[in-house]
Design brief:
The structure is a single chain. The protein has helices at 3-12, 186-200, 215-249, and strands at residues 35-41, 49-55, 61-67, 76-80, 85-93, 99-105, 111-120, 125-132, 139-147, 152-157, 160-167, 175-180. It is of the alpha+beta class. It has a single domain, classed as LURP1-related (Porin). The termini are far apart.
C-alpha cells in the first residue's frame, strides 16, 4: 500500500462497536464504551517498566509492561492495574530479521497463546497474527494499515477497524494514543502495539539474523517471569496490608 493511499485509508477509518465482543485475553478488558489509552515508552529506562498505559480522561492506569531488556528473548510481562500478570511475551528473530513476539498465558507452566509477527518498512506495514476468541472459540485474523513509523496506524480484526493509533506531541514518538472500539479486548490491542514497537526499535550493535529460541529455554524464561510478577504483587499486597494496620493503630 502506497504512502498516499495508506494515509487516506487511515483518515477514513471509523471505529464502530463490535457486533460481537472481541475477547482474547479476558472479558473484563473489553468495555462496552470506547476507550482512548495514553501509551508512553521509556526508551532509556533501566527499571524494567517500559510502558504505563493510562486512560486519557481519568488518568487511571490499566496496564504496565515490565521487561527484562537484557535477556536473550527480551522477556516482557503485561500486568493489570493490580500488578497481576495478564500475558507474557518472548521474542524470536526469524530468518530475514523479522521479530516475532510469542505470547503466553501466565500459567505455570506457561501456555502458548498466539504469535504476533509484524513487518514494518518505510513504504508498508503488515501484520501476521491469528488469535482465538476465549468466549466464542472462533479464530480472528488481525491486521494493520497506515504508517506505524509516524504512529498513524489502524488495527483491524477480520478486516474491520478495531483500534486507531494517534501520534502524540513527542518528536521521538515515545508517546502516543490508541483509541479502542467498544467491545474490543484492550489487552490484546496493547500486546499488538508492543510487538510493533519491538519490530521497529533500533538496537545498535545487535546482530539481526535468523535465530530460534528453544521451547525449553523460552518456557523457563516465561515461567521465571510469571513467578517474579506474582511475588512482586504479593509483596505489594503485604506492604499495603501493613500500612492499613498502622493506620488503624494511629
Amino acid at each position: 500500500m502506497g504512502c498516499c493511499e495508506s494515509t487516506e485509508a487511515y483518515d477514513n477509518a471509523v471505529l464502530v462497536p463490535a457486533q460481537q465482543p472481541i475477547v482474547v485475553i479476558n472479558p473484563k478488558f473489553a468495555p462496552t464504551v470506547s476507550v482512548t489509552l495514553h501509551m508512553k515508552q521509556n526508551l532509556w529506562s533501566c527499571t524494567g517498566d517500559d510502558f504505563t498505559i493510562k486512560d486519557v480522561k481519568s488518568g487511571t492506569e490499566y496496564f504496565k509492561i515490565k521487561g527484562d531488556l537484557l535477556s536473550a528473548t527480551r522477556a516482557k510481562t503485561l500486568v493489570d492495574f493490580q500488578g497481576l500478570p495478564v500475558a507474557l511475551m518472548q521474542e524470536v528473530v526469524l530468518p530475514g530479521g523479522l521479530r516475532q513476539q510469542k505470547v503466553f498465558a501466565p500459567t505455570i507452566p506457561p501456555t502458548p497463546w498466539f504469535d504476533i509477527t509484524p513487518k514494518i518498512t518505510l513504504f508498508d506495514c503488515a501484520l501476521d497474527c491469528v488469535v482465538v476468541d476465549c468466549t466464542t472459540k472462533l479464530p480472528h485474523k488481525l491486521g494493520i494499515f497506515g504508517d506505524w513509523l509516524s504512529r498513524k496506524t489502524v488495527l483491524t480484526c477480520d478486516g474491520a477497524p478495531i483500534a486507531k493509533v494517534l501520534a502524540g506531541d513527542s518528536l521521538l514518538q515515545d508517546e502516543y494514543f490508541v483509541e479502542v472500539a467498544p467491545g474490543v479486548d484492550m489487552a490484546l490491542v496493547v500486546l499488538v502495539c508492543m510487538a510493533l514497537e519491538e519490530a521497529t526499535e533500533d538496537r545498535e550493535g545487535e546482530e539481526v539474523v535468523g535465530k530460534a529460541v528453544g521451547e525449553a529455554v523460552v518456557g523457563f524464561l516465561v515461567a521465571d517471569a510469571v513467578e517474579d510478577a506474582i511475588e512482586e504483587a504479593e509483596e505489594e499486597d503485604a506492604e499495603s496490608d501493613g500500612d492499613d494496620v498502622n493506620d488503624d493503630d494511629d
